[in-house]
Amino acid sequence: MNKLALSFGLTLTLAPTLFFSCQLSQAKSSANSTAYMVQLPIERKATKLIALEGEFKPSKYTQILAENSGKIANIYVQDGDYVEKGQPLLDFDATLAALAVKTAQNEYQMATRNIIELTRTTSEDDPRFESAVSAVEATRKNLLIAQQDHEATTMYAPFSGTLGQFHLNAGNYVNEGELITELVATDTVELHFTASPQVLNVFRKVLNNYPDRLQASVVSQEGDYIDGMLRYVDSKLANQSQELSAYAVFDNQNGEHLIGSKTAFYLNSPQQEPQLFVPASSIHTNDGIPTLFVLDDKRVVRPKQVTIAKIKESYTGYVAIKSGLEPNDFVLTTPEAPELVGKKIDPMVNLVNQLNEILNRQS
Predict the structure, then answer these.
(1) C-alpha span between 53 and 194 (Å, rounded)
(2) What's the whole-model pTM score?
């Protein structure tokens, strides 16, 4: 409906009210009056929310395994400690490794001195020279390996996170590959969930082009939205569930998201969309179902069952309607609306506000 037609229709509908001598902002002027306040829904842009459920999982996880065999000399951290990337966790007895480095250094130095001496006393055609060059290269490699083995006697955190339980103590002998502890990244967490392709295919397309636009939100105990970023949507159905897998990443610096816990959350619509709102006072409950009372084309009051929309924004005094309401429905705002079903009334409106609403929709 274009602006001219909508404005014209509004004028015709409200024509009887133009002859009232009472103020338009008033409701019934007397006990026998049939004049009641009505208004069009307002239309505003809003972020629509899709309710889902997911489970928090670590964004990174690894087992800390012994990189070589030996006796643990020192453990520098405790169960449950938070560690930074590169922080020393433990070291092994380095006696043998240090001795191996010393031996390799001596062998390399001897091979180097030998080739220097041969350079002074023989030509490069001498078979001993070629053998000496090979010896230098071999001892240099042995030294590098020995140094690496010595450095490996200290184990470091591969990323920042929280340690699990240590399975060994200082003084214990450990075999290469044996489990020492676990490390879980806790600065960020992933919220894993599944949803139908009808829901997630749109998000997957947007994610491919605008990876930093899509948000997911959980609700804090205080009722505030905590936002994370949608980072992955699978393109294939998960097993027999006929659903797509996805996850969002949330900051967890304060540890408010417990790994392994399940939570309700909301996917935010990729962009704000037009949304109808009605005054909260106009909503009545009929057998637990939200109901509005609107005028038909003969100005007779009719009930309309509606569905409340879940949106991220808040408009004080107004409620978002998901379905069951048309943009050109005139909604009764009086508490007596349920008693007027089937009756013909004289609608009263705030013309300025309603015309402004019409113009706002066309802008």
Answers:
(1) 8
(2) 0.69
SS3 category, 4: helix
In degrees and rounded to multiples of 5, residue 284 shows phi and psi of -120, 160
Q: Would you say how long the chain is, in residues?
A: 363
pLDDT tens readout for residues 110-134: 989 988 888 888 777 778 888 888 8
Question: What count of Cα atoms within 13 Å lies in the side-chain half-sphere of residue 164?
Answer: 14
Q: What is the pLDDT of residues 299-329, one digit of tens each?
A: 999 999 999 999 999 999 999 999 999 999 9
Contact 216, 248 (CB under 8 A): yes
The structure tokens listed for 352 are 């300025």
CB 227 within 8 Å of CB 220: no
Residue where the block lists tokens 């009764």 = 332
Beta bridge pairs of residue 192: 55, 247
C-alpha distances out from residue 297 to 255, 329, 337, Å: 57, 10, 17
